[in-house]
């Protein structure tokens, strides 16, 4: 670690915070319907759908509308992928995507996971990338943000009968937040060197006379929303490590900014919507603490290098360079890693599978903590507030009072639903991992022997259920078993969480909003932030400790004992 | 049911037209006008032929060229259905080794590469495969270790080659971001033009 490295980290984080503060105010204005500069376009959407944007929906209506939109998106994307061979914008003449892989990919992009069992430049037509994957990058992000806005509204006032209109939220978030940001960031990406063309791949003859195929495509626009929407699915197989998808250190820094700014802004927007900005800052402080802690561990572990290789005569100065690009440096790799897994983005600018054991433990654990640090756009905020409810419940138990949050009493029903939601992740991750570790058809997908092989499998189901999408890439993911079970894990991780979460929103919304009294436990100070962090670590992380001990932690000790597999 | 299906289908359909076709097509047109080189893949031409992209690494094995980092990319093996064989810097299929830190295969590969360079200490980037398999850069330390070989193979004074390396060493972006590096293709193109 160097001070110059930490200066890079500080610079990028400062740029994120500086933008998140005004963006939060803007998001709150969009949520309230006060932003109208594209009103004619908005009206056209409502007219086509027969939608009255002013008609509020209860939690059931809101959730059903969301599920219908996602089902339609899934079917359309599945059809596009299967049929890409006979559709236009396919200059490389790629065949249709096979059924298991198309199922996995469609679920993956609709749930904002963007797990990829294919390599973009070798499988996807330009039409699939644009009209299929890019569209779902927007809509899955907008879905998460709409749900989060509905959840925030539940705390804003007492005796609410509705949570807003899903269609209006979806359209406004897309038109006023995601699309303008994607256009601006996309232009910057082109300027930095990302291709944006419909031309077929270029054929080059290298200086030594060999043939080299240069893959091209409409890359920059898709990569912009891939980060802004915390989707993470790469245009190319090696994601943001690819020189066309991460052409420079500046581009990688802008990508970090892009996948972190909306999740942070959402936390602050929560403060605006509930009318107490300190509440947003408390959530942000906890998120930032975990991001910094994760970055520090990855940076320290990777900059120290691999002791086995150092013993062979490799200069330790540059750290562990297997799976890493020269241009980024260890500091920006560490920050990218902690933010992409903390934020449920899943893009990578280096290969986690080749990280040192502790460097690889961090992204895995940040996913397992529930993707709330800061989590995906929208999804991170509602996940965080579910943890907040559990934290005030724990605090209430300690002092023997009925817990309340922002003047809303938190009672047995909400706590049961919150526990139901929080248990989805460990049940899906540990369940599927355990089964897959004893089934020969699944074990065949593992590349590395020893504890690292267990980490590969555990990482895959963590990434899928957490809707992250990054991978320990040595795992062979394109098999019927992995495509199917990972697809189910992604759907459960997304929707089996959303339904109880929205039920909590409906129940909270109807409650009266009580005035704060001297007995109210303040939820904006360091004491509460510390309690919240503890609840996330214990309720979110403890279930995974045995699995982590057998995987990355065992590997760490074996590595330093000089053992290889 | 119609109250849910109609908005779902029309919103997803309209957004597919707007975000999946209209916006990217307009964006592509504008990008091609304002940044034609970058939007087209930063291709480099020499004598009327495309020799590569400024952003993508390519394989060099001759002694007279600077060598890039090891690359883990592969290609389909024509002799065995479904199998692959090593094909460094195959830009049609970017790939990393994905080998873990306790992998014996990785340790052996690193040991062989260190031995091929005449033993340690060697810069880490010279004996490890990159994340993309297409890393266009090497570290200045890696380049420095290759100067003597290249100078001898070309019959150029070492100082002349060292000066070219110096000239093609890029510092941290804005003095702070990333790492110092040398673009191997750009350096080798300059070498071919040097006397």
UniProtKB/TrEMBL annotation, chain A:
Superkingdom of origin: Bacteria
Subunit organization: The system is composed of three essential subunits: KdpA, KdpB and KdpC.
Principal cellular location given in the protein's record: membrane
Membrane topology: Multi-pass membrane protein
GO CC annotation terms, alphabetical: plasma membrane
Keywords assigned: Cell membrane, Ion transport, Membrane, Potassium, Potassium transport, Transmembrane, Transmembrane helix, Transport
Sequence intervals crossing the membrane: 6-28, 62-81, 138-158, 170-192, 281-299, 379-399, 420-446, 486-506, 527-549
Gene: kdpA
Lineage start: Bacteria, Pseudomonadati, Pseudomonadota, Alphaproteobacteria, Acetobacterales
Known function: Part of the high-affinity ATP-driven potassium transport (or Kdp) system, which catalyzes the hydrolysis of ATP coupled with the electrogenic transport of potassium into the cytoplasm. This subunit binds the extracellular potassium ions and delivers the ions to the membrane domain of KdpB through an intramembrane tunnel.
Subcellular location: Cell membrane
Pfam family, one: KdpA
Identification of the protein by name: Potassium-transporting ATPase potassium-binding subunit
HAMAP family per the UniProt record, alphabetical: KdpA (MF_00275)
Similarity section: Belongs to the KdpA family.
The species this protein was found in: Falsiroseomonas stagni DSM 19981
A molecular function (GO) term: potassium ion binding
Automatic annotation (TrEMBL), chain B:
Gene Ontology cellular-component annotations: plasma membrane
Subcellular locations according to the entry: Cell membrane
GO MF entry, a single one: P-type potassium transmembrane transporter activity
Chain positions covered by the region annotation Disordered: 67-93
Topology versus the membrane: Single-pass membrane protein
Keywords from the UniProt entry: ATP-binding, Cell membrane, Ion transport, Membrane, Nucleotide-binding, Potassium, Potassium transport, Transmembrane, Transmembrane helix, Transport
The UniProt record lists the keyword NAD: no
Main location: membrane
Keyword Ion transport among UniProt keywords: yes
Family, per entry: Belongs to the KdpC family.
Subunit structure: The system is composed of three essential subunits: KdpA, KdpB and KdpC.
Function, as annotated: Part of the high-affinity ATP-driven potassium transport (or Kdp) system, which catalyzes the hydrolysis of ATP coupled with the electrogenic transport of potassium into the cytoplasm. This subunit acts as a catalytic chaperone that increases the ATP-binding affinity of the ATP-hydrolyzing subunit KdpB by the formation of a transient KdpB/KdpC/ATP ternary complex.
Protein name: Potassium-transporting ATPase KdpC subunit
Organism whose genome encodes this protein: Falsiroseomonas stagni DSM 19981
């Amino acid at each position: 670690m160097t001070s110059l490295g930490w200066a890079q980290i500080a610079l990028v984080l400062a740029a994120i915070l500086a933008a998140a503060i005004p963006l939060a105010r803007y998001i709150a204005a969009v949520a309230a319907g006060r932003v109208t500069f594209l009103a004619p376009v908005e009206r056209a959407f409502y007219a086509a759908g027969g939608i009255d944007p002013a008609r509020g929906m209860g939690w059931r209506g809101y959730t059903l509308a969301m599920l219908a939109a996602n089902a339609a998106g899934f079917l359309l994307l599945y059809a596009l992928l299967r049929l890409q061979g006979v559709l236009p914008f396919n200059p490389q003449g790629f065949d249709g995507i096979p059924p298991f892989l198309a199922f996995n990919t469609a679920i993956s992009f609709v749930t904002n996971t963007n797990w990829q069992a294919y390599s973009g430049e070798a499988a996807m037509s330009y039409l699939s990338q644009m009209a299929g994957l890019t569209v779902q990058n927007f809509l899955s992000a907008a879905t998460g943000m709409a749900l989060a806005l509905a959840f925030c509204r539940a705390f804003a006032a007492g005796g609410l009968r509705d949570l807003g209109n899903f269609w209006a939220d979806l359209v406004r978030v897309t038109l006023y937040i995601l699309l303008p940001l994607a256009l601006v960031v996309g232009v910057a990406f082109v300027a930095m060197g990302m291709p944006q063309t419909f031309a077929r791949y270029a054929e080059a003859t290298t200086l030594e006379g060999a043939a080299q195929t240069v893959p091209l495509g409409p890359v920059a626009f898709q990569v912009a929303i891939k980060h802004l929407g915390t989707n993470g699915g790469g245009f190319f197989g090696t994601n943001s490590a690819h020189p066309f998808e991460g052409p420079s250190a500046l581009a990688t820094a802008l990508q970090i900014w892009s996948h972190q700014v909306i999740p942070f802004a959402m936390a602050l927007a929560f403060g605006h919507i509930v009318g107490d900005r300190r509440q947003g800052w408390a959530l942000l402080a906890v998120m930032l603490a975990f991001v910094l802690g994760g970055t520090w561990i990855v940076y320290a572990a990777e900059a120290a290098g691999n002791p086995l290789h150092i013993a062979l005569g490799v200069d330790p100065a540059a750290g562990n360079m297997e799976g890493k690009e020269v241009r980024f440096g260890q500091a920006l790799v560490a920050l990218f890693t902690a933010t992409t897994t903390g934020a449920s983005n899943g893009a990578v600018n280096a290969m986690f599978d080749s990280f040192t054991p502790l460097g690889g433990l961090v992204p895995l654990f940040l996913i397992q903590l529930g993707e709330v640090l800061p989590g995906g756009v929208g999804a991170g905020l509602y996940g965080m507030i579910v943890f907040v409810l559990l934290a005030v419940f724990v605090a209430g138990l300690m002092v023997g009072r009925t817990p309340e949050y922002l003047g809303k009493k938190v009672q047995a029903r909400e706590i049961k639903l919150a526990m139901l939601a929080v248990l989805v992740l460990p049940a899906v991750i540990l369940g599927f991992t355990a089964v897959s570790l004893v089934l020969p058809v699944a074990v065949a997908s593992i590349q590395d022997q020893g504890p690292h092989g267990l980490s590969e499998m555990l990482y895959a189901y963590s990434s899928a259920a957490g809707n992250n999408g990054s991978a320990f890439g040595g795992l062979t993911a394109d098999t019927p078993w992995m495509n199917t079970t990972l697809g189910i894990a992604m759907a459960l991780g997304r929707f089996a969480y959303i339904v109880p979460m929205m039920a909590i929103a409906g129940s909270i919304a109807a409650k009266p909003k009580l005035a704060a009294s001297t007995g109210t436990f303040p939820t904006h100070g360091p004491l509460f932030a510390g309690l919240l962090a503890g609840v996330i670590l214990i309720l979110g992380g403890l279930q995974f400790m045995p699995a982590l001990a057998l995987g990355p932690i065992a590997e760490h000790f074996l590595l330093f004992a000089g053992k290889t597999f | 049911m119609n109250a849910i299906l109609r908005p779902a289908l029309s919103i997803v359909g309209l957004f597919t037209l707007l975000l999946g076709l209209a916006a990217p097509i307009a964006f592509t047109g504008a990008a091609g006008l304002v940044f034609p080189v970058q939007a087209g893949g930063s291709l480099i031409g020499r004598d009327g032929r495309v020799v590569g992209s400024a952003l993508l690494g390519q394989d060099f094995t001759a002694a007279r060229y600077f060598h890039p980092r090891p690359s883990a990319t592969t290609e389909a093996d024509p002799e065995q259905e479904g199998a692959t064989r090593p094909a460094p810097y195959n830009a049609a299929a970017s790939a990393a080794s994905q080998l873990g830190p306790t992998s014996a295969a990785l340790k052996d590969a690193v040991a062989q590469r260190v031995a091929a360079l005449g033993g340690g200490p060697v810069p880490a980037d010279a004996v490890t495969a990159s994340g993309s398999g297409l890393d266009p850069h090497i570290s200045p330390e890696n380049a420095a270790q290759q100067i003597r070989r290249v100078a001898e193979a070309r019959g150029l004074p070492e100082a002349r080659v060292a000066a070219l390396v110096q000239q093609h060493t890029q510092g941290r972006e804005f003095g702070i971001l990333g790492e110092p590096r040398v673009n191997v293709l750009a350096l080798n193109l300059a070498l071919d033009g040097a006397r």
